[in-house]
Every structure is written in structure tokens, then in C-alpha cells.
Amino acid sequence: MGKGFPQRELRSELAYLGMLSLTFFLYMALALSSLAPNGVIGKMSTIHMAAQRNVFLRNLLVVCGFQDAGPLRLRVFLYLVLVLLAACYLWALHIFRHRPRGLPSILSVWLFLNLILLFIPPLLSRDVFSYMFYGKIATAYGHNPYLVTPQRFSADPLFPLTSLYWKNTPVVYGPLFTLLSMLLTRMAGNQITLGIYLFKSTAALFNLACVLLIWYILGKHAPRRQAFGTMLYAWNPLVLIHSTGGAHNDVIMAALALGALALLLRGKRFSGFFLLCMSFMVKYITLILIASYVLYLFLTRESLKGWAREAFFLGLILLAVFFAFYAPFWEGPRTFSPLLENLRLRNYNLPAGWLLAALGGLLHLVLRLGIRTAFSAASILCSLALNLLFLVCLVRFTLRCRSERDFPECWFLITLAFLLTRSYFLSWYMFWVFPFLCLRRWDGLSRFTLLAGTLTLYFADLMPYSSGG
């Protein structure tokens, strides 16, 4: 047995090194493929232009077959890389379940992967260009981005890089993120490449905050799962690709929500609620967590008077944050028109979208309604039913909370229920769920949600570049 133990130890270390080597290789292959000049994987940007001017990179793209690769070949390549990345990730989960590593090991791998993803074009989405454009509308052109669309400034160099939908839509994000976009855009000036790096670096920093907060929360409340839960988030391909890779603002919202959770678990109610409000000012999804928290206070307070007093002070915090951040952009109810319009978006990536499609088709075939009428009616019926279902879930999951220690489980279930009852879904929305998933027990629901959520990377936008959209 004494001889077998070092051999098992050696095999374990070799397996770990093999997993890391393959993971690093796959991310570097993904990074190189993102420089393909048709903008399928890495969205067309000034980084592509710089790569084409670099003789070494251009020759490397030719040798690897990416320089003249068509959209189909790049899609097949990406799908293969994503499958292998998922396999490596599952391999890492298996290793950490049996032999956890410490935070330095987790962070060293995280840092290396983020450096690979930082200096390449935005992956699988053009959203970062709309972030930059909205910041520029306010800083360079002096207009309100909640009222004015990029379409008005079609001569701007960012315009052909921005996706068609956002060219014709004012900003739909919270004012805290809009102010951050203005700051980063002002720092970048007219340098688009620098702007991309600033937004990606910001996303990486907030992603790092998520990693450290998960480590901290698990260390306080579930130390046996601390290393595994932290690695579960830090090395997840979807998290890496959509945070540093794509610079999506969802990671900022998630970091602030995790910070709020860490404070609430320590009994810091008002400061925790303040961070929840700050998260709400990035993306409005956090409103469901605010509603759950206020309901929890109502259910756990011994007297209605005590709850009313606490709710009053929390309401003051929410209103103060709301008006402080909206003050520079406030134009009355018109300020929210883009957001309300954005809520009408539909796709068919999740069961709610499938239900909408099935009901619309049924109304068209059975009642002989026109296609547009049938799907409008189906949209209204589905929205009513699914919103009611979500409210029931929110109340039921909040009722299960006996103390603040139950918040990670409650918030995981609430955000998951919210996603499943929406008829519009994009893969980076999993940022709403994954941080809380990593804080709960590792059971069948966690496994299924993690695997299914990670595989939503296959919903990515893989259309080649077109200046029209």
C-alpha cells in the first residue's frame, strides 16, 4: 500500500497537468480562431485590422487554416472546441471533487485563461460596441443615450461594428452601468481597440470579485465546499467566454449581488441592501432579489410595525440610489421607453419560447387567426401565465427561508425560475444563476443546471461580419 500511494499521487498529478495543458491549448486555439477576418467567432473590430497588418499573426492564421476559413468551417471548429472545453471542465470538476486545490491554484489558472481572452476581439457578441457607443453619445456628442440611438451618428467609426438592433435602440441598462460606460469611453477617446480592452478588463475585474466573494462566502458557511464551489465558477467556460471574452455587463450585476449577499449573511442589512440596489442600477433583473428580500423581512418580523419601519428605511435607500443615478438622464417616463420596448423581444432558446411558438401555431391552425394576430395573442397569454407562475415561485421559495443562511439557495431558485419563465434568452444570462449555484449543495439540480447552462454557449451569434447588422 505504501508503494501504491505515491503512484496514485503521481497519476493524479499527471491527470491534473494533462487537463490544464489541454485547457490552455483549447483557449489559445479559440483565441487564434477569433482573429479570422470574417468576424464569425471574434466579432469584427480594429483588433482584426491590427492582426492582418502583423506579418507573424497573418502567417499563423494562414498556416492554421483560419485566414480563408468560411463561416461553416469556423462554426464547426468552434463547436468542437466548446465540446472539448466542456469535457476538460468536467474533468477538472472530477479532480476537485476528490482532491481540492487552494485559492492560489484556482486563481493562477483563472489569471492565465483571462490573459488569453483579454487581448483578442470580443467573442460571440457585439454588445461591447453598443456599450461604447452609448457612452460616446453622452460624452462626445452631448446627448442622452436613453433617448438618442446610435443611428443618429452613422458616421461614427463604431457604427459599422455595432449590431443592427442596438443601432436603432437607446440604452436599456441601468444608469450605473451607463455612467461606467461613459467613464471608460472617455478614457479610451477615439481609440476603439483601447476601449475594447478597457471594457474587457473591467469585466475581468468584476469576474475576479465574483471568484473571491464565492471563496469568502463558502469559507464562512460551507468550508468543505469552498475550493470546489469556487473552481466551479472560476473555470467555467461560459463565465470566462462571456465575461473577459465578451465583456458583458451581467458579470458586474452578479458581482454586486454577491457582495450584497456576503453583507446580508453577516447581518449587515442596510449595506447589503444598498449593494443590491447598486446591482439593480446595472441591470434591472436584481429587482426580483430585492422583492424577495423585502418579502423575507415581512415574513420573519414579529410585528408589522417593525417590518414597516425597516421597509421604510430600505425604501429610502432604494429611492435615494434610484434618483441619484437617474438624475443625469431623467426625462420622465420616456426614460424607460427603450426598456419597455426591449421586454417585447422573443426567441425560442428556452421552454418559455417553445411554449409561445406552440401556442401561436395552435391559435393559427385551430382558430384560423392570422400569423401576426395568433402570435400576438399567444404572447399576451404566455406572458400572463408565465409571470403568474414566476410570482408563485418567488413567494414559495422565499417562504422556505428561515434565516439569511438560506439566501443562496433561495436566490438560485428564484433566478433560475425567472430565466425559465422568460421567452427571450441569451447564453450570458446564465450569469444571473451561476454564482448562486456555486454556493449551494452539489446535487442533481446543480449538475443539470450547470451542464445545460454551459451548453447554451451553442446559442451564440455565429454570423459573419456585415456592416449592416
Question: Could you describe the 3D structure shown?
Answer:
The protein has 469 residues and is an all-alpha fold. The protein has a domain at 1-99. It is 67% helix and 0% strand. It is built from 21 helices and no strands. It has helices at 4-33, 46-53, 55-64, 71-98, 103-118, 127-139, 164-167, 175-188, 192-221, 226-234, 237-242, 250-265, 269-280, 287-300, 304-326, 337-342, 351-366, 371-399, 407-420, 434-437, 444-455. Helix 1 (4-33) runs antiparallel to helix 4, helix 1 (4-33) runs parallel beside helix 5 (103-118) and helix 5 runs parallel beside helix 10 (226-234). The mean pLDDT is 92.
Kindly list the characteristics that best describe this protein.
469 residues, mainly alpha
Rg, nearest Å: 23 Å
Q: Report on the biggest sheet.
A: none
Q: How much of the polypeptide forms β-strand, as a percent range?
A: under 5%
Question: Averaging pLDDT over every residue, what do you get?
Answer: 92
Tertiary shape = globular
Strand tally: 0
Give the SSE order as H and E letters: HHHHHHHHHHHHHHHHHHHHH
Question: How far from one another are the termini?
Answer: 64 Å
Structural class of the secondary elements? mainly alpha
Low-confidence stretches: none
Q: What is the count of DSSP helices, taking H or I runs of 4+ residues?
A: 21
Helix amount, in percent? 55-70%
What topology does this entry show?
Layout: H1 4-33, H2 46-53, H3 55-64, H4 71-98, H5 103-118, H6 127-139, H7 164-167, H8 175-188, H9 192-221, H10 226-234, H11 237-242, H12 250-265, H13 269-280, H14 287-300, H15 304-326, H16 337-342, H17 351-366, H18 371-399, H19 407-420, H20 434-437, H21 444-455
